[in-house]
Design a protein that fits this description.
The protein is α+β, with helices and mostly antiparallel strands and 340 residues long. It contains 12 helices and 10 strands. The chain has a single domain, classed as Beta-lactamase, CATH 3.40.710.
Length: 340
């Protein structure tokens, strides 16, 4: 049961959550650290140029490949959802309330509000004894972050914490999420800038290579000793790979039938993170103009250059995920090109 606590027990110390900086971090300014990664041409001329940063590293943080500055700081946005799901599993809530693989995939999801996805969220709320009105995310149960919020609420209820203001950075559960993300990234929590995501929950800024390290570890459960975190990471990998129709991620089985080699999660506005399953290698990228269109071809090219995935697999993924530049009659009128 949740227990209400006086607000005085949770002082709003946002100044201790976000490092003081003289100016915004990221792409602001002339020297952004980005490089040309991809372009769209029409009639042989460049129509769109996509600059950005992509980094591949191992679970110890050693950089295996980079294009652009590896220490560029970007907002991880929804790519943090599997880490947030890790906290829900480690709390014991997912097990206690009997969440299944489909429901766990929804906790990690940026879903599109389709009927099966909404039904899965409602199932979790019912299992945890929670009302839809408890969700503060945008459009409620149909919001693309409703699975994440349901996982948070279930864990908070299971831990006996207050559901009130569960989205605030100072809430004990959000502090727990920050601690886990920081640990996986190899950062001090005090050095992680905290902002507000589109759904109203706290979200983090981190150097690109440290976000890649999170996925290098998360996608390799054996990175962790036997115990709750090992089991939680294995569950997340299994659920996300088995149910891309719930997560909103690409179904890589279309290009690599019957094989799971990579775990990915988009973050929105041209941010993407990946982990090579079982290899202790992760990657992260940010497209400077916020476009999602070049992200996956760029990601798999970088993983190939780092030697993290086989040439044949990389070619199949890049070929399948390279966007076709068509007009509204379906005629091909341009070309997508990698530039790095």
């Amino acid at each position: 049961m949740s227990q209400k606590r006086a607000k005085s027990e949770h002082p709003r110390r946002r100044d201790t959550l976000t490092p003081r900086r003289k100016a915004p971090v990221g792409f602001a300014g002339s020297d952004t650290g980005s490089v040309p990664l991809a372009a769209i041409t029409r009639g042989g001329c460049v129509d769109n140029l996509h600059r950005g940063v992509v980094v591949v590293c191992d679970r110890d943080g050693r950089i295996l490949y980079s294009a652009g500055k590896p220490d560029f700081i970007a907002c991880v946005r929804s790519s943090a959802k599997p880490t947030q799901a890790l906290c829900a599993i480690e709390s014991g809530a997912a097990q206690t309330y009997g969440f299944n693989d489909v429901e766990l995939a929804l906790i990690c999801a940026s879903h599109s509000g389709k009927e099966p996805q909404v039904a899965g969220v409602r199932s979790m709320l019912a299992k945890a004894g929670l009302a839809e009105s408890a969700l503060i995310c945008g459009s409620g149960v149909i919001d693309n972050c409703s699975g994440k919020h349901t996982g948070m609420l279930a864990a908070i209820r299971h831990l006996g914490l207050s559901l009130e203001s569960y989205w605030e950075p100072w809430h004990p559960y959000q502090q727990r999420v920050l601690a886990v993300f920081s640990e996986l990234a190899g950062m001090n929590p005090a050095d992680v800038a905290v902002a507000v995501d589109g759904c109203g929950a706290p979200i983090f800024f981190s150097p690109i290579h440290m976000a890649a390290r999170v996925y290098a570890r998360l996608a390799t459960p054996d990175s962790f000793p036997p115990g709750p975190r090992h089991e939680a990471a294995a569950w997340i990998v299994r659920a996300m790979c088995a149910h891309p129709e719930m997560t909103g991620e690409s179904d890589y089985h279309e290009f690599l039938p019957g094989r799971d080699i990579v775990l990915t999660k988009c973050g929105g506005f041209g941010y993407l993170v990946a982990g090579v399953i079982g290899k202790g290698i992760g990657a992260a990228l940010k497209i400077e103009d916020g476009s999602a269109l070049p992200a996956r071809p760029v990601m798999f090219e970088a993983l190939h250059r780092a030697g993290a995935i086989a040439t044949a697999d990389a070619k199949a993924l890049i070929r399948g995920l390279t966007p076709k530049i068509l007009n509204r009659r379906g005629a091909e009128v341009g070309e997508f090109k990698l530039l790095f």
